[in-house]
């Protein structure tokens, strides 16, 4: 079988002009000519064109494509192995790009419209988008989650910085209380716990005492929270949980 330049262009989704150019530079010379001198392409020519288009799709310049295809040491299986390796690398790169786009979409849905540099400046090593999928799964149908999304939708970098500064100040208060030997049910610790609850209510969602105690329990039951909180001082997560519980009891009739 042989094919005209127009047929081959249709098969491959390229222009006739492209095939003429490949012929002119010696990259893909048709295997035959018609009686009228028109180009005729064989099945082997189509196989070579497929290889050319693959490497072009991956960004290889034409001179490198020619060197690859005309390498006397390479056989068809070697080309297939190389293509598989290149495709695998391309897929991994695209998957990473897809994840980055998804995270950006999630961040916008959360109202965290910060650049990566701004996020690092405000939150440090903690990525507020990291657990968004889990957050949606666990609390996506709750009023608290909806309130948080509505409140944070308009937050600016300055708002997030203020919230983070407040959290850092509370952490320092709790640590100072621990180091001073104040028990978790002391007035100072319970007052800090109350400020913690009110900060959540002010910046994110209505946080009653029952919900606040649930958060406190999560601080010690989820090792990720424990590890993050205890980074300021070992045992801080449990201390905060106990202070939150004592404060709830204090305010429960």
Quick rundown:
The chain is mainly alpha-helical and 253 residues long. Helices cover 70% and strands 4% of the residues.
Q: Can you put this structure into words, describing what you see?
A:
Keywords: Activator, Coiled coil, DNA-binding, Transcription, Transcription regulation. By secondary structure, this protein is mainly alpha-helical. The protein contains 13 helices and three strands; from the N terminus they run βααββααααααααααα. Strands 1-3-2 form a three-stranded antiparallel sheet. Strand 2 and strand 3 form a beta hairpin. Helix 11 runs antiparallel to helix 13. The longest helix is centred in the middle third of the chain and has 35 residues. It starts with a strand and ends with a helix. About 9% of the residues have low confidence.
Could you give the topology of this structure?
Elements lengths: L1 E3 H8 L3 H9 L7 E2 L5 E4 H15 L4 H8 L6 H35 L5 H8 L8 H8 L3 H10 L4 H23 L7 H17 L5 H13 L1 H8 L5 H15 L3
Key features?
MerR-type_HTH_dom, DNA-binding, mainly alpha, 253 residues, MerR family transcriptional regulator, single chain, 3-stranded antiparallel sheet
Share of β-strand residues: under 5%
Runs with pLDDT <50, length 5+? 118-140
**How are the strands of the largest sheet arranged?**
1-3-2
Give the class from helix and strand content and strand pairing.
mainly alpha
The biggest sheet amounts to: 3 strands, antiparallel
* Percent helix range: 55-70%
Write down how many β-strands occur, each being a DSSP E stretch of 2 or more residues. Answer: 3
- What order do the SSEs take from the amino end to the carboxyl end, as H and E? EHHEEHHHHHHHHHHH
Q: What's the total helix number?
A: 13
Distance between the termini: 91 Å
**Average of pLDDT:** 79
Based on CA inertia axes, which overall geometry fits? rod-shaped
Computed Rg: 32 Å
